Automatic annotation (TrEMBL):
It holds the Pfam family SBP_bac_3. It is found in: Cell membrane. The keyword ATP-binding does not apply. Belongs to the binding-protein-dependent transport system permease family. HisMQ subfamily. Residues 289-473 form the ABC transmembrane type-1 domain. Residues 1-27 form the signal peptide. This is ABC transporter substrate-binding protein/permease. Keywords: Amino-acid transport, Cell membrane, Membrane, Signal, Transmembrane, Transmembrane helix, Transport. SMART domains: PBPb (SM00062). PROSITE patterns: ABC_TM1. The keyword Membrane applies. NCBIfam families: HEQRo_perm_3TM. It is a multi-pass membrane protein.
Length: 486
């Protein structure tokens, strides 16, 4: 009977989630341009780790996103008479953000491939470039073009046009995909891969910024659609698309990409190269630590309170509630935290504009609650039944027995397990970087993209995580000793 209730509750939960995820975002009729003008902002989805198109710089201690795509976005917003708002997130989350209405457009080195056109509409191409291959300069003589990489490992950003080209036009090569270009460069330098296929402007920027790298023309056969970059827009947003195309035509007529945008990006890259010291980026790491600690602290509170409540309900006698929360615990423990973060951010975002920080914190807290509830339940059940019986025989109510007799003993026994959960939580918050939360991992990516340095930012992040977790473990150990001496 218990299993039946659990299965019914779990199926109901899954059906609710599926029902939410399949709700259409855009109503019939095209009022896309009118909506943008009415709210006064143009929200642009962007993954700022793709110089010279989009990347971040440290300007007076503050993070600033710059690059060719950013200047184009500013021009479009100016033509529309609205303010440009840049929403940062990982590259593979951009399409989901557009489809769920989190952003009005994607301007982030996007190519209008046939697969993407099934889900979104595209503007006219605003910039056309070749596909180059980045390699270690010491191996420059071994490789001439894409045909030289037979039997070699070739990297590309996950979900990019470059990744598709490696599959289609480098059949003898083994494709290695990663979410971040900086990780690919790090793998290249460590000789884990032999080359990286990237847009020519970006590949040349990497080669010019790192004396150990070189960029060669891959001689790929690319259609005009795949070779170009375009702006992705929601399906049916024709009025907004036409307005965007007018801005693109204006920019192309004045040749602003070659005359202005590329030069501006080059100047920013040059300034970054002049200040590659990690000390210059301490505000980035400090901001990342602040977000990580803040999210962890709030998530711990959510996890503790909700976890204790779930444990008490599951130990109760109301079968319906027990089945519902058992299904909740099993479902949360049976799905990856990354998927939960994305579902809460994009799923709830279909109905309510929840911020990335709130969504990430809520997801981590709800995930933690499932595990904390099991810790509480195990600790409460470990207390001998004689303790409860003795308390009740002395006239204590069930509520007072739990509060004054069972829980104090249970907390003492489960404290080490709770401490481990808190420490794990600090490390698990790193997953929120996929939706653009500026935690320590996100800032690590920013510094990597800015400095073209792979290992040193990682080493700094590792030390900072160790300091946070070690300090917390010492603090928890202190309270554990006080409990045992009480």
């Amino acid at each position: 009977m218990k299993l039946k209730w659990h299965l019914i509750a779990l199926i109901a939960l899954i059906l609710c989630l599926v029902g939410v995820s399949t709700t259409p975002v855009h109503a019939a009729g095209d009022d896309s341009l009118a909506k943008v003008k009415a709210k006064g902002t143009l929200v642009m989805g962007n993954s700022p780790n793709y110089p010279p198109y989009e990347f971040t710089v440290n300007e007076n201690g503050k993070e600033k996103i710059v690059g060719m795509d950013i200047e184009l976005g500013q021009q479009i917003a100016k033509d529309l008479g609205v303010k440009l708002v840049i929403k940062k997130m990982s590259f593979d989350s951009l399409l989901v953000a557009l489809e769920t209405g989190k952003v009005d457009m994607i301007l982030s080195g996007f190519s209008p491939t046939a697969t993407r056109k099934q889900h979104v509409d595209f503007s006219n191409n605003y910039y056309v470039s070749k596909q180059y291959i980045i390699l270690n300069k010491t191996e420059r003589g071994y490789y001439k073009n894409r045909r030289s990489f037979t039997g070699k490992r070739v990297g590309a950003v996950l979900g990019s046009t470059a990744a598709n080209l490696v599959k289609q036009q480098m059949p003898g090569a083994k494709l290695v995909t990663m979410e971040n270009a900086s990780d690919l460069v790090l793998a290249l330098k460590a000789h884990k891969i032999d080359g990286i296929v990237k847009d020519s402007a970006s590949a040349i920027a990497y080669a010019q910024s790192d004396a150990t790298l070189a960029a060669i023309d891959g001689k790929f056969s690319v259609s005009s659609a795949e070779a170009g970059n375009a702006i992705a827009l929601p399906k049916g947003a024709d009025s907004l698309r036409l307005a965007v195309n007018q801005s693109i035509a204006k920019v192309q007529q004045k040749d602003l990409f070659n005359k202005v945008y590329l030069k501006d990006a080059g100047k920013e890259i040059a300034k970054t190269n002049a200040t590659k010291s990690m000390w210059h980026y301490w505000p980035y790491f400090a901001k990342g630590v602040g977000y990580t600690v803040g999210i962890s602290l709030v998530a711990v509170i959510i996890g503790m309170l909700l976890g204790a409540l779930i444990a008490l309900i599951r130990l109760g006698h109301v079968k319906v509630f027990k089945a519902i929360f058992t299904a909740y615990v099993e479902f949360v423990r049976g799905t990856p935290l990354m998927v939960q973060v994305m579902f809460i951010y994009f799923g709830i975002g279909m109905f309510y504009n929840i911020s990335a920080v709130v969504a990430g914190t809520l997801a981590v807290g709800l995930n933690s609650a499932a595990y904390v509830s099991e810790v509480f339940r195990g600790g409460i059940e470990s207390i001998a039944k004689g303790q409860t019986e003795a308390a009740r025989s002395l006239g204590l109510s069930q509520h007072d027995t739990m509060r004054y007799v069972v829980l104090p003993q249970a907390i003492t026994s489960i404290w080490p397990a709770l401490g481990n959960e808190f420490i794990s939580l600090i490390k698990e918050t790193s997953i929120v970087s996929i939706i653009g939360v500026a935690d320590l991992i996100y800032q690590l990516r920013v510094v990597q993209a800015d400095t073209y340095s792979g290992v040193l930012p990682i080493a700094i992040a590792m030390v900072l995580y160790f300091i946070m977790t070690f300090s917390l473990s010492r603090l928890l150990r202190h309270f554990e000793k006080k409990m045992h001496h009480a």
